[in-house]
Amino acid sequence: MPDLILALDVTEKKKALAIAEACAPHIDAIKVGYPLALAAGLSIAGDLKKTGLPLIADFKVADIPNTNQLICDQVFLAGFSAIICQGFCGMDSVKACVASARTHHGECYVVAEMSHPGGKEFFSGGIAEQIAANAVIAGADGIIAPATRPDRVAVLRGFVGDKKILSPGVGTQGGSVDSIAELVDGIIVGRSIYDAPDPAAAAQSYAAARRRQKR
Ligand code: O7M
């Protein structure tokens, strides 16, 4: 059964914390990206820690190795348990993120292919496969691959073996739990939960849907 990860892209701190608290019983982790971190500051990790859930920092880190390491160190020092980086900057840049994760006893995930329509422009033609293979060699904990393209996730699974695949694009972007749950280790859902009239009920229904799946 894959984890259910809430993408908390809510830019009002009070609202974000209320949604996190309400959804916490139904989810396995919270992903914080630029929208919330820029609005509320990195200290949001300290506030969200009260949910007791792992906190994934989605900053899609994409710089030279030294800068990557400095960014990741700040993220882990703030209290996050995982960092997400881009893979297209090369193996050395990914390795720097993995090294920081190891130093801080955290995890590192690498974006292999993106879920939106434009994600096909540059990640196709073997690049995503190469990024996935590099993520394994670099010692990352897993990759990010698109729930909007289960066929591509199946291909990328062949490159990462037992490493984790976390998959965004379920709900608003058109991906479904039924078509992706058996292929991945984590399903990332944002708007379909936090924009729902009752976010906790929406989270509960996604949690139930992925429970029906085998993985
Ligand atoms: O469910 P949504 O569409 O509201 O939100 C999806 C979340 O996943 C949102 O935080 C995106 O930034 C993120 N995401 C994608 O939607 N597509 C990708 O290819 C990659 C990510 C992501 O999480 O990258 C780490």
TrEMBL record:
Keywords (A to Z) from UniProt: Decarboxylase, Lyase, Pyrimidine biosynthesis
Lineage, highest ranks first: Archaea, Methanobacteriati, Methanobacteriota, Stenosarchaea group, Methanomicrobia
GO molecular function list: orotidine-5'-phosphate decarboxylase activity
Binding residues for substrate: 9, 31, 115, 190-191
Protein name: Orotidine 5'-phosphate decarboxylase
GO BP annotations, alphabetical order: 'de novo' pyrimidine nucleobase biosynthetic process; 'de novo' UMP biosynthetic process
Enzyme's top EC category: lyase
All copies of domain Orotidine 5'-phosphate decarboxylase, residue ranges: 3-206
Pathway this chain belongs to: Pyrimidine metabolism; UMP biosynthesis via de novo pathway; UMP from orotate: step 2/2
A matching Pfam family: OMPdecase
An example Gene Ontology CC term for this record: cytosol
Active-site residues (renumbered): 58, 60, 63
Superkingdom classification of source: Archaea
Organism in which the protein naturally occurs: Methanoregula boonei (strain DSM 21154 / JCM 14090 / 6A8)
NCBIfam families linked to this entry: PRK13813.1, pyrF
Catalytic activity, EC: 4.1.1.23
